[in-house]
Amino acid sequence: MCRRLSSATLEVTQHSGAGPGAPEVEISEMKTVLIVLSVLGVAGLATGCSPSGEQTITMKNAEPQSASTSAPPVRPKITRTDAEWRTLLSPEQYRVLRKAGTERPFGAAYEEFKSQGSGTYVCAGCGALLFSSKEKFDSHCGWPSFYDPANATNVVLHEDRTLGMVRVEVTCAQCGGHLGHVFKGEGFDTPTDQRYCINHASLKFVPDEKPKAAQP
Length: 216
Ligand SMILES: [Zn+2]
Fold this sequence. Notes:
Elements (H helix, E strand, L loop, with lengths): L23 E4 L28 E4 L22 H7 L2 H8 L9 H8 L3 E5 L5 E4 L12 E2 L8 E6 L6 E6 L5 E7 L9 E5 L4 E5 L9
Bound molecules: zinc ion.
Zinc ion (ZN) binds next to loops.
């Protein structure tokens, strides 16, 4: 398990007293290494979720770093035409993965996610390993939540300034598909206090194989 992604650095300071039930969390400092994927020219439409559903996350003094520094741009390893993605994905998967859409919170997909047992979550677009049930937790935010990726090399972070906010978008490193956003310092009792708020439509659950029954 990797707590810090090699492709991005996220440093967020949480003000004391803020937590999942707090009305507002102020994140005073945030630095991201901005890595722009060539296929991500679309505007993000996602909205961040919060534990209480009412929490407003504000970020001050954001200091985004230019992508023109020494780090080379990360290119998606899987590239398809828009028409190909439309054929391969369901309309909802296409809207979320390829158009940075956000699915409705607390829907049937969320209930399905909560009921899923042990296993791994792979990208619905390309099958790359993204998360596992080991890092899954119930944030009560209405979207699948993980405190860490299962395979950090398959997850890329980007600064997202859409909707008048500064957030960190999470995408698949293999196909560039939009997954959701990551938030830090909200007071969750997890090893990282990071919340990867991920659209269920971006994920495909692969349950662990059950141990075979003993032979008679
Ligand atoms: Zn993918």
